[in-house]
Amino acid sequence: MNRRHHAIRRKIEGEKHLKLQLFKGWKKIGLKDDFEDVYQIWKGESKCFLCDVKLTNTRGANMKTMDHCHETGFFRGILCLTCNFQEHNDKYWKSNKFDK
Q1: Would you say 62 and 82 are in contact if contact means Cβ atoms under 8 Å apart?
Q2: How is 6-39 classified by DSSP, letter by letter?
Q3: Which residues are 26's β-sheet partners?
């Protein structure tokens, strides 16, 4: 096995591990949507849906998080940690009729 093949394999295994960790967390918080669909959105999103800040994969205010309705369990969007933790978040979604 050459170095390039080994590096590609390591990257694939790392992505599988990340995906499993995300799914485990999403299941724990009660996400009701299809995890594969949410994951594809997760992978493709680079900016917060509410404040448009560039998202990161490291801990901090701009860390990428999956937002969901706490009543229904349905996915709403990819947000930065700051927007996701704001208390008015559920009220914002309801007032704008984004919830299912």
Answers
A1: yes
A2: HHHHHHHHHHHHHHHHHHHHHHHHT--S-HHHHH
A3: none
The CA–CA distances, whole Å, from 75 to 6, 34, 72 equal: 36, 9, 9
Q: Which residue has the tokens 């485990």?
A: 24
C-alpha to C-alpha distances, 68 to 8, 30, 54, 78, 93, nearest whole angstrom: 33, 9, 20, 9, 10
Q: What string of pLDDT tens digits covers the 100 residues of the chain?
A: 577 766 777 777 878 888 999 999 999 999 999 999 999 999 999 999 989 999 998 889 999 999 988 888 899 899 999 988 885 556 655 656 554 4
Residue 45: phi and psi, rounded to 5, are -90, 130
Structural domains in the chain, sorted by start:
3-95 (3.40.1800)
